[in-house]
Amino acid sequence: MAVTVETQDKQMRSNVDITRGDNVQDQINNATNVSSQSSGREKHSNLSGESEPRGNRLLLFNTVIEKSLLKFMSDARFHRASQIFHPLYKKNPQETEKIHKQFIEHLQRSIQDDITKLIEEGDLQCKLDKLDQLGAASNSQDAAWRPSGVPEQDLCSFVMSYYMKQEAYLKRELRKIREENTALAERVQAGREGIGRTEQHIATTVDEWKVSAQASFNEFQILSSSPCPPATFDV
């Protein structure tokens, strides 16, 4: 009877060991499968990343700024503010929450406005677009420029485009200045014509006044020199 119990005990232990071994083997197989799948996904992602073109740097910049702003705003959540201003929160929780909400809205709007101003002042969009163009040009299969060995020719080819741009810019500015001078000359000419008409009108008025005054003076002389009856001067 004792032998039978020992035999059964040994069989049960062996079954448990076999079961444990199967479980361990299953765990190893699962881990191997997971690692192989993850490595396969990494390889596929690397291949797809290499095949895809470079992303828009401005979009990436905006995404990073947005995530950073969200993380920053999450650190300023109401729970932390209520702990810092616990006496105020304990006295009036609703008013404290209202003040915190207004503060968060104002802070977020101010940060976004400052970021927008920095992007505009630094002309960041143009610079990031140029980086995108350089990144796209780096994948080009065309032959890159190399110096010819003659410094004069290389310098001329490099500086000529700059001089041509400056020439075009100066021509545009000169055309603008000439147009402004023409407009000013027309305004001056119109002013002179107006002054001439005014002078002519004044001279005509003065001549008419002189003629009228002379006629009145002549009439007065005639009246004063002619004999008149005394009744004419009676009041």
From TrEMBL:
Biased segments, Basic and acidic residues type: 40-53
Top-rank taxon: Eukaryota
GO cellular component, one term: nucleus
UniProt keyword list: Cell cycle, Cell division, Centromere, Chromosome, Kinetochore, Mitosis, Nucleus
Coiled-coil region: none
Polar residues bias spans: 13-39
The UniProt record lists the keyword Transcription: no
Annotated segments matching region Disordered: 1-53
Cell division among keywords: yes
Localization annotation: Chromosome, Centromere, Kinetochore; Nucleus
GO biological process, one term: chromosome segregation
PANTHER family: POLYAMINE-MODULATED FACTOR 1
Protein name per its UniProtKB record: Polyamine-modulated factor 1
Organism name: Esox lucius
Organism taxonomic ancestry: Eukaryota, Metazoa, Chordata, Craniata, Vertebrata
